[in-house]
Amino acid sequence: MRPGLFGRNRGIGGRTRGRMSWKMRLIPLLLFAIYGLYFFVSNQETVPLTGRSQLVDMTHEQEMALGLQSYQEILSQSKVIPEGQVVDLVRTIGRRLATAAADVDPGFEWEFNVIDSPQANAFALPGGKTAVYTGLIPVAENQNGLAVVMGHEIAHAIARHGAERMAHQKLVQMGTIAATVAVGDMDYDTQRMVMGALGVGAQYGVLLPFSRDHESEADYMGLLFVARACFDPTEAPRLWERMGEVSKGKQPAEFMSTHPSHGTRIKQFQEWMPEALALRERHCSTTSQSS
């Protein structure tokens, strides 16, 4: 029997077909690197106030349409409080913060609602669609504390953090696809090990750090909105001390979290406080500073 006739498959020139060479494995990774660089360079925006360059690949109009759709879905599935003292307070604070942010507002149509829920939270979606959960009110304690949280959420929307997060996820997905092709002929256990390591690296080395950076950026921008709206910015560290008491023992280690630790946030607020107080001094009269 001639060797190779019914034995191992042979390719051109009689060479045995084996696993993909390391050069062939580099091709999908190289293509991803080229396209990823193009994607990154061609979709750069600048965050207001901080001047940070960010990756965003959708228009304001697309982002606002997504925000409106999500807002309507959330409200339709929630118990919205139509009127009352808390609603009036939230809308008054919201209007003051929106006015303070007018210089960097990309044309949002602000809307403020209150949702009956024990969550100590709030959110602001692209387009200015904002909601506060009633569970936040006791933790905020006063209008200054509530303004700190709302200013933070408004900053997320103005800084386009949601759109930036989606762009980062696209890059990670493209990289995952390229890596999957590169290891496609490896045995299952090796594939699982490589892809698992890449997944952990992307999560803890890219997505979570960016998320924490977004939170810190929103804290900073929100603090400036609070100060310019003539609320008391010194309430910010006190608020996060209270937040720490509420979530004591429940917050994961910072490197595993989407948010900075409460201690980190308090320290950052203290560092930014002189700038916030100076801004308040410039923009607020003695009467308004008593708010």
Automatic annotation (TrEMBL):
What cofactor does this one take?
A: Zn(2+)
Tell me how the cofactor is bound: Binds 1 zinc ion per subunit.
Please name the source species.
Candidatus Nitrospira allomarina
Record carries keyword Metal-binding: yes
Peptidase M48 domain location:
90-272
Membrane-spanning ranges: 24-41
Listed GO MF terms: metal ion binding; metalloendopeptidase activity
Q: Biological process GO terms, please?
A: proteolysis involved in protein catabolic process
CDD domains in the record: M48C_Oma1_like
Keywords, A to Z?
A: Hydrolase, Membrane, Metal-binding, Metalloprotease, Protease, Transmembrane, Transmembrane helix, Zinc
* Protein name per UniProt: M48 family metallopeptidase
